[in-house]
User: What shape does this take?
Amino acid sequence: MLGAMMAAPAAPTAVMAQARRAPARGGPMPALVCGMPQVQHHHQLSAAGPVTTVVAPATLPAAPTVQSLAAAPLVLSAGAPAVVPRAVVSTPATSLPSFGSAQIQAAPAAAPRATELLAVAQARVAREAEAPDERSKAYKSFLNLLVEAGVFEDLPLDACGTLRVGAPFCHDFFEAPLLLPLLASRVLAPAGHATGIAVAGGDLRPQSTWWPAWEDWARHTFPNSRVSVRLSQMDLEKERLPESGLLVGLHPEVTNGGPWPKILTNVLQSCVPGGRCVFATFYDQEAEATAKVCRSAGMTCEIRENPYYAGQPRSAIGTFLRYAVLVPGAAPRALATGGAVAAALSSVPVAPMPAPLPGCMSSAAPVAPLAVPATMAGAAAPAVVATPSQVIARPVPAPGALASIQRWIAQRKAAPDQREVAYRSFLHALAGEWCLLDGLPADPSGTLLVSAPFCQEFFEAPLVLPLLKEHVLDRGGARAIAAFGCDVVPQPFWWPAWEEWARHEFGARHEFGAQIRLELRQQDLATEALPAAALILAVHPAVTTGGPWRAIITNVLRSRMPGGAAAFATFYLEEAEAVARICEAEGVKCEIRENPCYMGRPAGEVGTFLRFAVLVRGASQ
Assistant: This one.
């Protein structure tokens, strides 16, 4: 699955089962940086089904528009005859942290210095070497599977002897310190025949810290520029990666439909004759859907299960890289445990080979022995761990984490990305025309309890927490705020870093102690109850993928305190309607609203962060 996340300083981010990546976020309210709405679609859930009505939006200041990412068919559905919606009560405007009024396509903020980025990457490598998380353990076992299957043998090289590697939908590219040393030890001379390795990765959402950090790490770690990494923003529905002898794509959200069949087809067409393409998925149904796309492209494919999960039930969630879909240019060796091989191989048209990268080594150039990093020396033969650990120690903030967070926030203020622009607009609507933050009940101590289920890295912290302070605490709605976030996959950098940032920003300077307390921890919401809360902010549930999501949403709904409110944000209308159906099944009234940021935009756009809101109101709202 994707979860598209924001660029960031040092942070191990695993692709998660309970969050979508594509795979974050006194005085008058600042002008929205999204387009001026013309008409607002307002959906209410009735006994007859979803009902679409039209509400004239409140007047908003004009501002730049968010540029479309791509187009895909998506039809707004209408239900029974329209009804007049509830009146929207105007409330005083609420300000949000000022992130400037730069348009989405503005140039990104200056990245940290190269030495800082290298230190960020090295710190993550050291942490993972000392205490690898579940995703890293599964990835090592996954690499072991690929080695045994012969995936890395006899890979085709380009004209100057370089193995070109493609990393589609690469997200943060956290696999770099595991994949690159393994490839180097197996394909570079003298062990192999390649004179260099050139990795080209792409994702729809740029990672302005991690991408240059891994590029710097590769330059520093591998001598004589024998391993290079170049990571770029790409829409893989419309663009192709450079032709490659090996492509490794992790966790495609193929069961979501939309652009994914086209994306995977484009990835396959980037594979040169004789090359290998590998996809990793959480679940078997995702692997089967991926294999179906491969077969439709005329490719042979094989599905194998990662030995790391041997003996685990098929229904287990959060199983990173559990299934491998192998698409060989020449069939790999069969394992004793083998898998079913599909239809016969047929050639796929590929574009002409790109010119050698700058600095590409001549095949005749002398090659020095490669020094594999000491901390990753074991990556050439990853150990297979039979049973994943279920106990994960609570992390502490890394040295310098607060300063890294503060620099990151400053960068985002200078150049907000699309998700932040959409999140600001979403919060503006919650506090303003949707009136969801008014009259929230506090607990007996006067504390407003807030929860953020499937919070992933909780990149929204610098937007949500200041807004709640101004709209609730500064107006006397509560004495303090206790915010709780959770996800099935822990974030050992980001979670303690945001907790430290919250203590610094909203700490003991208040007469009652900390104004805002933040706690983020690992929790499986399919099986564990979410703590009770008066306000629930749930962003991008992957509810249309099935699996545990009905149980997760039900669990979230049942955690709402009497009189409390909840807001679910989704990319697409069908996701919002799926959440609304779960609400209806639980006897909870809800309504669907469209983020004013997207008013007047085509219904079929993809990558529209927080476009639809499913609102569950308190009794007094």
